[in-house]
Automatic annotation (TrEMBL):
The keyword Zinc does not apply. Signal peptide: none annotated. The lineage of its organism: Bacteria, Bacillati, Bacillota, Bacilli, Bacillales. The keyword Isomerase applies. Pfam families: UxaC. Keywords: Isomerase. This is Glucuronate isomerase. InterPro entries: Metal_Hydrolase, Uronate_isomerase. GO terms for molecular function: isomerase activity.
């Protein structure tokens, strides 16, 4: 998998070894921290 923003070997290694399988969490939203913590489904 090639990602456009991974511009060097360190970035590629960090992504593939640590981040690739993690969930994407977007804190720029209108949810309260409590709803995020409680994993509220809408």
């Amino acid at each position: 998998m090639k990602i456009f923003c991974l511009t060097n070997e360190i970035a590629i290694s960090l992504f593939h070894d640590y981040v690739k399988e993690m969930s994407i969490i977007d804190y720029h939203c209108h949810l309260s921290p409590k709803e995020i913590y409680e994993n509220k489904n809408f």
